[in-house]
Amino acid sequence: MEGATVLALFLAVVSLLLVSPSESRLSLDYYQRTCPQFEKIIQETISNKQITSPTAAGATLRLFLHDCLANGCDASVLVSSTFFNKAERDADINLSLPGDGFDAIVRAKTALELACPNTVSCADILAVSTRDLVTMVGGPHYTVYYGRKDGRVSKASAIEGHLPKPTMSMSQIIEIFAAKGFSVREMVALSGAHTIGFSHCSEISNDIYNNSKFSQYDPQYNPRFASGLQRACGDYKKNPTLSVFNDIMTPNKFDNMYFQNLPKGLGVLKSDRGLYSDPRTRPFVEEFAADENKFFQAFAQAMQKLSLVGVQTGRKGEIRRRCDQIN
Question: What residues bind heme b, as annotated (predicted)?
Answer without folding.
Answer: 194
